[in-house]
Design a protein that fits this description.
Shape of chain A: globular
Shape of chain C: globular
Radius of gyration of chain A: 23 Å
Largest sheet of chain C: none
Largest sheet of chain A: none
Distance between the termini of chain C: 50 Å
Distance between the termini of chain A: 31 Å
Oligomer: heterotrimer
CATH superfamily of chain A: MetI-like
CATH topology of chain A: MetI-like fold
Largest interface: A-C, 104 and 105 residues
Radius of gyration of chain C: 24 Å
CATH class of chain A: Mainly Alpha
Number of strands of chain A: 0
Chains: A mainly alpha (278), B alpha/beta (239), C mainly alpha (287)
CATH topology of the largest domain in chain C: MetI-like fold
Helix content of chain A: over 70%
Order of helices and strands of chain C: HHHHHHHHHHHHH
Strand content of chain A: under 5%
CATH architecture of the largest domain in chain C: Orthogonal Bundle
CATH architecture of chain A: Orthogonal Bundle
Number of domains of chain A: 1
């Protein structure tokens, strides 16, 4: 062991700050997650598999993941567009638009849930328009898709915005002096520069959407196999005091979350190594 | 290519970056725009490259009015002060960029592009760095790659903004000779901006001394040294 | 020799005006549909039968109890998380130790865990039929289906907010000012109160603001641990759900309007902080 665990430092407060940090982290986050994993361990991997390996659970996990992916893809495109517009263009109302992007972070999910349902239900404003053309939004997968777009909206914009601000104008000019059209510059030079940040935002939006509950359950309709999301299954199992099954599904979702966390980190490592920045 | 600057002026808002200036640069010359910061030299270079538009006046290339040409149409090989290399592309892709950006009809086939990039890498004496990324290069190597990238489009002239500004003294000396060699080999009219009078005097055939948006003196280095036209020039070259 | 120009010059780094206004139009339209419309609907539904009906719906005992409970939860969990955030940021930025990156990952963990799973974890840890929870219930201190459980669940989901805001700011500010204070003979606490805290106050306020908004609005994690006992463990968001499911639309949206107003105030303060103290915040330089 060449490197000491903690380097000596003249700074005061090591014991206190480390104590508070580790105690609260353990009590609030690590021990509860440990309790979930312990529950899973006593329940057994075989039993967990049997619980998860049922049509209704697979359908819910697949639905959550698939719609989250679509919503995150939408937010990827729209978020990059928003970041570009907010940084590069000056127009009346820009500040309001910028602030509005954060509303999904600030608005409670239950409020978003009932508001979106009121909008997209057949007797709502947008739901009524959709009904005219024969589309049902609320209480279908479309409704879930829209709710997941809402909760994931700010992520890509907020990760891409600082990168757009830092683009060196000379790089764009260099592309033009080499004969490239503006479209060519945008697609071949600027978008690749934004890609790592956009992918990070995409992964964050995806992770958020997969676990989302409050804004979805009102608009989803919650029909098993059709519009039932994975977090709802956990709530249902808990309401029946079926802790083992709840833990099994919870562990499956936790694994998905960790996998996505890992992917986010790998994207950052990859982009740092390859391009020298994040 | 012969470049003629005819009564060019440039206003940024209310402030004049360039008072009407006129200048005639013979084909194949190696010209230095010399002056302190704020003298208008970079603005003039950017107007030639099509990156800025003059408030009044004309730019003539070989007698043809080029004032209205877009950046893309100018075909000016431009080397930026920051080099502005595309950091998500390899050196090879950076140099090939201008050729790949051409519309399909006039784009050379891939093998031809590869051949040209290889030749340019040899010209800048860095034949083995094609697969590297800009972040893996030294400052001097980046500058040479930026030069090769500008040359790849077969430019009609070469414009360089403080090409040696970001380099240390030793590399600077080497690269000066490199630019001289490339200029002599390609025969391109070459204009570079500098605030370093020694660099201008040593490298250029023709030096344009600028101050406060005006041209103070135009001449061969030896003539400027022997007969400074104004007090400003006298002070600036003796500094 | 200048002539009049009939063409206009467009800098190489700009799009044509048509493209520019098209993109702005798309951005505004998207935000109008996705964000502004739901916001508008909350107030429209709440005020469907007039202001008085809306206000009245908030005046009954259960509604007042929900508002009180939500305020209490925020009043407990936000200061605790702020204290944690300051301690963690101090520990991480003022000392060098092995496993720092791992510790930061652990602190960020709650952001990638579903709120429902977070609630489930609290139930499994402190529920009546768990080891710890069973003992606490026997001592007369139930956690789950009671205030402590709701506070814990709220703390779990808002755990990283303050630390995440402070760490980048404190890394950027370095240790030199604290070191200077120490060499001048200041004690550790004095250094913290007179040097560190003034430097990080806006970032701290920013983190607390976001933490508070989330704490008062948390639904998924609280839904799992609260037991939804009307007048006792039903927070404002839980009450919104119950009212909505009972088709009491005006009451549900009136309470939602209160939380929406809170969200708007949060955004307003947040924007003001970003405009006035941008260089002292992490958000404006986050990558």
């Amino acid at each position: 062991m060449g490197r000491p665990l903690i380097h000596r430092s003249p700074m005061p407060g090591l014991g206190l700050s480390m104590g508070i940090t580790l105690t609260m982290l353990s009590l609030v986050v690590l021990l509860p997650i440990g309790a979930l994993l312990l529950k899973g361990a006593t329940f057994g991997i075989g039993n967990i598999w049997d619980t998860v390996n049922r049509e209704r659970v697979w359908a819910a996990l697949f639905l959550s993941f698939r719609l989250s992916l679509f919503a995150a893809l939408f937010n990827l495109a729209f978020g990059v567009l928003l970041a570009w517009v907010l940084v590069r263009y000056r127009f009346p109302g820009r500040r309001i638009l910028d602030a509005a992007v954060d509303l999904p972070f600030a608005l409670p999910t239950a409020v978003a849930g009932i508001a979106l349902t009121a909008l997209y239900a057949p007797n709502g404003v947008f739901g009524g328009i959709a009904k005219e053309i024969g589309v049902k939004i609320a209480y279908t997968q479309w409704g879930i898709f829209i709710a997941l777009i809402f909760v994931g909206l700010p992520f890509v914009t907020r990760t891409v915005q600082p990168v757009v601000e830092e683009i060196d104008r000379e790089v764009e000019e260099a592309s033009a002096t080499l004969g490239a059209s503006r479209l060519h510059t945008l697609t071949r030079v600027i978008l690749p520069m934004l890609a790592p940040a956009a992918l990070t935002g995409f992964a964050l939006a995806l992770a958020r959407a997969v676990g989302e509950y409050g804004s979805v359950i009102f608009i989803a309709g919650n029909i098993p196999l059709v519009t039932e999301i994975a977090p709802l299954l956990i709530v249902i199992q808990l309401e029946e005091f079926n802790y083992d099954a709840a833990a099994a599904i919870g562990i499956a979702m936790l694994l998905i979350s960790f996998a996505m966390l890992l992917i986010i980190n790998l994207i950052q490592v990859w982009s740092r190594r390859r391009i020298g920045y994040v | 290519m012969h470049i003629e600057i005819d009564e060019i002026s440039k206003l940024f808002g209310a402030t004049a970056a360039l008072h009407p200036v006129s200048l005639s640069l013979p084909s194949g010359a190696l010209v230095a725009l010399l002056g302190p910061s704020g003298s208008g030299k970079t603005t003039l270079l950017r107007i030639l490259g099509g990156l800025e538009f003059p408030t009044a006046g004309r730019v003539l290339f070989d007698g043809q009015d080029a004032t209205g040409l877009t950046v893309q149409e100018r075909r000016a090989g431009f080397v930026f002060q920051s080099y502005a290399l595309f950091r998500h592309m390899t050196v090879f892709d950076n140099i090939a960029y201008g050729l790949n950006a051409r519309p399909r009809g006039s784009r050379p086939p891939a093998a031809e592009i590869a051949r040209r990039v290889t030749r340019l890498l040899e010209l800048i004496q860095l034949p083995d760095i094609g697969s590297r990324f800009p972040s893996q290069l030294s400052g001097g190597q980046r500058q040479r790659v930026a030069l090769a990238r500008a040359l790849a489009i077969e430019p009609r002239m070469l414009l360089l903004d403080e090409p040696f500004g970001a380099l240390d003294a030793k590399v600077r000396k080497e690269l000066r000779q490199g630019l001289r060699d490339i200029h002599d080999e390609t025969g391109l009219t070459t204009i570079f901006v500098t605030h370093d009078q020694e660099e201008a005097m040593e490298l250029a055939d023709l030096v344009v001394v600028m101050s406060m948006g005006r041209i103070e003196q135009i001449g061969k280095p030896a003539d400027i040294r022997a007969r400074p036209a104004t007090q400003f020039v006298r002070d600036f070259i003796s500094a | 020799m200048s002539e009049t120009r009939t063409f206009t010059f467009r800098p190489a780094t700009e799009e044509t005006p048509v493209v520019r206004w098209l993109l702005i139009g798309l951005a505004v339209l998207g935000i109008a549909i996705l964000v502004a419309a739901p916001l508008f609907v909350v107030f429209a539904e709440a005020l469907a039968k007039g202001v008085w009906t809306a206000v009245q719906s908030l005046g009954n005992r259960d509604a007042l109890s929900a508002i009180k409970l939500t305020l209490m939860i925020a009043a407990i969990s936000v200061p605790l998380n702020a204290a944690f955030g300051i301690a963690a940021a101090w520990f991480i930025t003022k000392f060098d130790f092995r496993g720092k990156a791992f510790l930061i990952t652990l602190i960020d963990l709650p952001f990638s865990v579903s709120p429902v799973v977070a609630g489930l974890c609290i139930v499994l840890m402190f529920g009546a039929n768990s080891l710890v929870g069973g003992w606490l219930v026997a001592q007369g201190y139930p956690i789950v289906f009671a205030l402590p459980g709701i506070v814990l669940a709220t703390m779990f989901v808002t755990f990283p907010f303050v630390a995440r805001e402070l760490i980048p700011v404190m890394i950027e500010q370095g240790r030199a000012e604290e070191e200077a204070a120490l060499t001048l003979g200041a004690s550790g606490w004095r250094t913290f109160w007179t040097v560190t805290l003034p430097n990080i106050r806006w970032a701290l306020l920013y983190g607390v603001l976001l933490c508070n908004a989330r704490a008062m609005g948390e639904f998924g994690a609280v839904a799992v641990v609260s037991g939804k006992i009307r007048g006792q463990t039903a927070t404002m968001p839980i009450t919104i759900e119950m009212l909505y499911n009972e088709y009491l639309s005006i009451a549900a949206f009136s309470m939602a309007a209160v939380l929406t107003a809170l969200a708007l105030v949060t955004l307003l303060l947040k924007t003001a902080l970003e405009l006035r103290h941008a260089d002292e915040l992490a958000a404006t330089r986050r990558h």
